[in-house]
TrEMBL record:
Residues 15-131 form the Transposase IS200-like domain. It comes from Faecalicoccus pleomorphus. GO terms for biological process: DNA transposition. This is IS200/IS605 family transposase. InterPro entries: Transposase_17 (IPR002686), Transposase_17_sf (IPR036515). It holds the Pfam family Y1_Tnp. One of its GO terms (molecular function) is DNA binding. It comes from the Bacteria.
Amino acid sequence: MSQYTDDLHSLSHTKWNCKYHVVFAPKYRRKAFYDARRLEIGQILRQLCEWKGVNILEAEVCVDHVHILLEIPPKLSVSGFILKGKSSQMIYEKWANARFKYRNHQFWCRGYYVDTVGKNTKKIEEYIRNQLKEDKIAEQLTFEFEDPFTGKQK
């Protein structure tokens, strides 16, 4: 038996293996996810995936974006599944003051990135697992300059 048949799932008359790497960010790419909020956003996304029957294989909530590796059954379209609408409502219920930062009840930016995984599942899982570490390294490379006239950070 092939290693790839282990990944197959079944519906009544269908065998499927549909994995997607999805990335989305808060509106204006605000740095909204830090400390306890990262965990709470993760709980919200896990809960929504459970409700829809979608498996999360790997996920990382970075400071200004979210990476998720998902198994979405073929009965759901990727665009129809994307969690942004319902998760916005749940975020606003949890943090009411976020409504003032994000106009028109749109917590997430309009678009998202999605890619099919194919047989590269392990590589993409590793990439997502290391994403937070990579972001921290990249942040250390940026320099904040102070304006000598105003004393404000640039």
